[in-house]
Amino acid sequence: MSAVLGFSCLFVGLVIVNAVYSYQSKHIDPAFGPTFLFQLKMLPLFLPANLLIGYGVRWVQHSFGQLTTALVSAKIVELLVCLLMGYMFMQEIPTWKTWAGLLIIIGGFILMKWK
After folding, report:
1. What is the SS3 assignment for 95?
2. 8 A C-beta contact, residue 18 and residue 85
3. pLDDT per residue over 14-47, tens digit each?
4. How far apart, in whole angstroms, are the C-alpha atoms of residue 91 and residue 107?
C-alpha cells in the first residue's frame, strides 16, 4: 500500500514541477524579468510539489527498504513524466530510440535489484 501511495505522490509532485518548467519553456519569454515574475507566481505550487515528492520517496523507501531503490525508481517515474510533458507541451512523439533507452534504464534497475 505504501508503494502505491508513494508512487502516486511522486507522480503528482513531478507532474506539477515538470509542468511549470514545460509551460515556462513554451510560453514565457526567456528574458530575466518575465521568467522571474513567472517563477515568483509559481512559488506556491512548489511547496506542495516538494512535499509530495519528499513523502513519495519516503514511502517508496519504506516499502522497498532501500533509499537507493526509491531514488532510482523516482528517476524512472520522472523520465516517464518528462515524456508526458514533452508530448503535452511540445507535441514531441517518443521514437523507438526513446523507448529503447527507457527499457535499458528499467532493465538496469531490475538488474540492480536482482539477488
Report:
1. coil
2. yes
3. 999 999 999 999 899 999 999 999 999 999 999 9
4. 27
